[in-house]
Amino acid sequence: VFDRSFEADVAATLDLDSALSRALVRREMSVLFQPLVRMADGGIDGFEALLRWRHDGTSYPPDVFIPLAERNGSIVEIGRWVLGEALSALKGWRAVPGHEHVTVSVNVSARELLEDDFAESVLSAVVASGVPADRLVLELTEHALVDVRAAHPMLSRLRAAGITISVDDFGTGYSSLTQ
User: Fold this and answer.
1) Average pLDDT, the chain
2) Do residues 76 and 117 lie in contact, with contact meaning Cβ atoms separated by under 8 Å?
3) What is the mean pLDDT of residues 90-107?
4) Which residue of 5, 78, 83, 89 has the lowest C-beta tally within 10 Å?
5) Within 10 Å of residue 152's Cβ, how many Cβ atoms?
6) What share of residues in the chain are helix, strand, coil (percent, to 5)?
7) What angle is formed at CA 95 by the lines to CA 94 and CA 97, rounded to 5 degrees?
């Protein structure tokens, strides 16, 4: 049974998908940084990069646009841009006396891990930024780690360079001890 509301939903998704593919060029994306605070003394250990998208006066939550970006492949370009922004901000924070130890955490999608040059692009960005690799934390969701065998060599290479790999939101997805 055809329902006009289905047609409207599909059209809205296609419009959003099209707008998302041009979001970086239009400078509609921004990165906010959430501090990671030590409970013991309130000191800041680092920051987590959080991606935001504002298009035509509307702010779209990540749970709306990230799945779209993963489906259409634009998440790869967006992820590289976020990494560059995060490393640039980290370089600035580390220049402040007493903040040389801070880290920056960046989320990585499952789609990005499928790229053959993922490790090389991350390592190149780190070298270009001048930030020590051990100050970068890549956060992967459980979903991104479903096929660990495919991602393992890349993740091992990044870890060998000093980059920290962490599992974000553990327990909300697959949570298999075999993984």
Assistant:
1) 86
2) no
3) 95
4) 5
5) 11
6) 45, 25, 30
7) 90
